[in-house]
Amino acid sequence: MVGCDKLFEKILDQMLTQQTTKGRQVVSIVGMGGIGKTTLAHKVYEHPSIASYFDMRAWVTVSQEYNREQMLRCLIGCVTAASRDELHKQSTDQDQLAERLRKHLKEQRYLIVMDDIWSTTAWDSVQRCFPDDNNGSCILLTSRLKKVGEYASSGNSPLNMPFLDADESWNLFCKVFGKTEFLLVFEEIGRDIVKKCNGLPLAITIVASLLSKTEEEEKWKNVAKSVMGDSSDACSRILYVSYNQLPHHLKACFLYFGIFEEDYEISVKKLVRLWAAEGFLSTMKHVNLEKVAMECLQDLVDRSLIIVSKHSYNGEMKRLRIHDLLRDLCLREARLENLLNVNGVKKHCRWISHTSRSFYNEVMFEDEGFHKPHSFHYFWNADVKRLFSHFKLLRVLDMSNRFWDDGVVGLNVLANLVHLRYFALYSIGTFDAKLFEHWNNMQTLISWDDFILYSSEPSGIWKMPLLRNLCIGRICSLETPSVVYRNLENISWLDSKLCTKDLFTMIPNLKTLGVDGGYCVISLDCFYNFVHLEQLEKLSIRMWNLVMCSIPWATSLPNLKKLSFLESNLQWSELSSISMLPNLEILKLIDACKGPEWETSDGGFHRLKRLVIKKTNFRCWNAVGDHFPMLECLEISECYGLKEIPSGFADITTLALIQLSKCSDSLVASAKWIQEEQNSNYGNDALLVRY
Q1: What does the pLDDT look like over 586-623, one tens digit per residue?
Q2: Of 476, 468, 474, 545, which is closest to residue 507 (Cα–Cα)?
Q3: Which end of the chain has fewer CB atoms within 10 angstroms, the N or the C?
């Protein structure tokens, strides 16, 4: 951050110096959109002193149209470390969710951040879930509305987020631009433009990112002319200038962010697949589609139009979000271009998003213009037969956020959607692969939760020659294709009995595979057949019941980078052979290993960067630093019996993060000791311990 240092210190002091005998307090940060409230709150939330002071921390983004159920699920997910799937399976009764949250917070010193709250009713809907145990718990709110901050703070004065002064504004411009010295003519133009930003960080960041793309004096002058006029509208003009400077193909990619809900965290993987299905990505021969998409994303990030909200362990973009002001721009421009229809906006548009209950009743199906939509997102259950009979040009159908309870019969109404390229569904049931015969344009097919694929004609899946991603709860039958399918890169969850040499040799470019063992006794042939997947980089195995000590992992899967075991019956000793995988970078063990002790040895895990252990009952871990020489991230969750991390981890100089959740106090203490040893012995003050 640039600026706000005094406000930051004031918030820290208010949270940390209060006596534990004081009651729960509410701290409110108020200010206009784009001024940096969320950035400041995040800096407070992640500060080491805050992380160590509070027993539990949770963050929820409320938004203008708040959803109480989603808020409760998000908060429960933070304090329990529950996964997305686990949260989906919880009760939908809001009172039960509220009581569960309250029980988790009871007698804990907690910090709750409620970001971007717009109304007093949103606060009232959840504030009773936050118990007051006179132990120093705190709620931090951010809002554009002062009255909301005053109401939640019981009349206490909210903290006003200040605008940047002239020096701070220029300092931020230089930081974003990447240099501090300019030719005189450029500095004069730049300072003039920054002055028009009126100390608003979002405007300064975007204009600096825009100007950093060119060294032509005339273009700088054109930007300066574009932002002249009434200073109150300068931010809006700056946003539009940045948008108008986008290349044509990036404008469509940027406007597509309007289909997502306000403050929604967008999966990079999902966005790339959606862009591909919409036809935004023009590719040349031998150029990977994903690579093209990532270049487009990086360009939008470099222009400060998109925010990276979460990175993977290796620094790659994992989740994105868009600022409210920029999302408003997307909505306005997309509507002007007749591209986007959100919640009952009566336009015959290309994309339909987040439909409400009323949307279905408002649609005039007899109007031929309504046959044009290419995308339909966040579907609300209705008379689907009538609805989809009119959407014959759909390329994208995303129902992953809505429960489907019409079964196989209901899915048959989708047979006429012959242009589908992306289909995502959340449900429990069965899926007849005969439906695939109609979808020969399909690229991505996803069914969340316990959806089962069966077919009287298993080869139906091979009627989709462009298929790249097939992700279904469980694939029980799958015939070997008669021709090689080079487009297919991702399959899950494949029944272990289908892992044959004949199948794998016909899908040679598979990069990601999920295998379901079903707790059955599995033939070793299943494993040995993996050798035919020469491009395989990610392998997930669940419900595995097979002794694997004698399996030559290193020679069978030489290119494997990520390996996950879920709900399996491995013995710790079996990890010795797994440790010899030459390129393994990520290992996840989730309810996977049995036995009280794990003892590692020399020569293994020599490239492992991230180790995740969750829901495991071991009590003792014997290891030295040399056993994990490249480890950067260690995550341990719900391992209640483990008392300490091996002291040898203090010698792993590459270690950057230890993330603990729902573990013993002694385990946390051992992590802090490792942090102190790293700092004193190696000067590594960058190691973070989060719990």
Answers
A1: 999 999 988 899 999 888 898 999 999 999 889 999 99
A2: 468
A3: N
Q: What are phi and psi of 257, to 5 degrees?
A: -65, -15
CA distance 374 to 396: 6
> What is the predicted pLDDT for the residue at 82?
65
Percent of the chain with pLDDT strictly greater than 90:
39
Q: Spell out the long-range contacts of 527-530 with Cβ–Cβ below 8 A and sequence spacing 24 or more.
A: 527/499, 527/551, 527/556, 528/556, 529/499, 529/500, 529/501, 529/504, 530/499, 530/504, 530/556, 530/557
Nearest CA to 300 among 255, 351, 267, 332?
A: 255
Tokens, residue 468? 């790249």
Tens of pLDDT, residues 69-120: 889 989 998 888 766 666 666 666 888 899 999 999 998 999 999 999 999 9
The encoded tokens of residue 88 equal: 């989906």
Q: Torsion angle of alpha carbons 465, 466, 472, 475, nearest 10°?
A: 20
The candidate with the shortest Cα–Cα distance to 586, out of 619, 609, 602, is 609
What confidence tens digit (pLDDT) does each residue in 639-676 have? Answer: 999 999 999 999 998 999 999 988 888 999 999 999 99
Q: What are phi and psi of 319, to 5 degrees?
A: -135, 150
Residue 198, token pair as written in the block:
């009126």
Question: Mean pLDDT over all residues of the chain?
Answer: 84
Alpha carbon separation from 109 to 97, 464, 481, 640 (Å, rounded):
20, 54, 58, 20
* Helix, strand or coil, per DSSP, at residue 650: helix
- DSSP label of 393: T
Number of C-beta neighbours around residue 116 at 10 A: 22
> Whose CA is closest to 659, among 679, 642, 674, 637?
637
0.70 surpassed by pTM: yes
Inter-residue contact 144 to 31 (CB < 8 Å): yes
Average pLDDT over residues 389-418: 72
CA angle, corner 131, sides to 85 and 614, nearest 5? 30
d(CA 537, CA 548): 20
Tokens for 359?
């949307």
CA distances from 613 to 487, 605, 663 (A): 33, 15, 11
Q: What is the DSSP letter of 564?
A: E
Q: What is the pLDDT of residue 650?
A: 92
Contact 663, 636 (CB under 8 A): yes
pLDDT for 62 equals 92
Taking the C-alpha atoms of residue 585 and residue 603, their distance in angstroms, rounded to an integer, is: 15
Q: How far is CA 569 from the centre of its chain?
A: 29
